[in-house]
Amino acid sequence: MIGPEWIALWLAWLLAGGSPGPATLSIAGTSMNTGRRGGLVFSLGILFGSACWGLAAAAGLSALMLANAWVFELLRYCGAAYLLFLAVKSLRSALAPHNSLSQRAYGGTGWQLFGKGALIHLTNPKAILSWASIYSLVLPAGSTPVQVFGLFAFLYSGSILVFVGYAFLFSTPGVVAPYMRMKRWFEFAFAGFFGFASLKILTARLDG
Q1: Alpha-carbon distance 184 to 93, whole Å?
Q2: Using one digit for the tens of pLDDT, what is the confidence trace for 151-181?
Q3: Which of 20, 100, 142, 165 has the fewest CB within 10 Å, making it most exposed?
C-alpha cells in the first residue's frame, strides 16, 4: 500500500519534472508549432530518453560514468551543443517575419520528432545523476532489484503524466491562439532559456 510519504515523493517528482526546463519547454514549443500529434510524439521521445537514464541508473551505470569521467565529459559537451543548436534555431525563428512559421525550431517527421525528443535527455548526463540521487535518497542500503525498479516505475508514471500532459495542454486552441499572437517573444524566451541551459550543462561538475 502506498503511504502519504510516497504520495508526497510522487508529487515532488511531478513538480520537479513539470518545472521549466529543456524537456518541458521543448514539448511546449513543439506542440504549439506542430499540433497535438507532433507534441505527443516528441514527448514520447523525451520519455524514451528518460527511461534509458532511469534504467541505466538503476543498473548502476551512473557509478560507472563517474568512474570514467571522459564518458560524462563527452555527453556533457554533446548536450550543451544540442541545446545551443536549439537556442540558435529559436532565435532565427524569433527574428523571422512575425507571420512566418518557416523557421520553426521544432518539426519533421514522426521519427525525427521522436529522435529530437530523445536527444534532449540522452545528451544530458545530469539526468542519470538525478535518477541515481533519488534512488540513493529514497531506497535503503541493500535494496533488492525489485525495489529499485519498482521505484523507477512509480516515478516514471509521474514523468508520463507531466510530459504527455504538456503535449495536450500546449496543443489546445486556447493556448495556441495566444502563442501565435506572441510567437516572436516566446521564441526569444526559448532562445534565451536554451542558451542558458547549454551553459549550465557545460559548467556542470561530476559532483553536481
Answers
A1: 7
A2: 899 999 999 999 999 999 988 888 767 766 7
A3: 142
Q: In the structure grid, which three cell numbers stand for residue 15, read together? A: 513538480
56 vs 52: CA distance, rounded Å = 6
Q: What's the pTM?
A: 0.71
| CB environment 65-93: b (16+ within 10 A), e (fewer) | bbeeeeebeebbebbbebbbebbebbbeb
Question: What are the CA-CA distances from residue 2 to residues 24, 109, 129, 154, 167 (Å)?
Answer: 28, 41, 25, 10, 28
Contact 26, 86 (CB under 8 A): yes
DSSP sequence for 63-86: HHHHHSHHHHHHHHHHHHHHHHHH
Cα–Cα distance between 121 and 50 in angstroms, integer? 6
- Model confidence at 101: pLDDT above 50: no
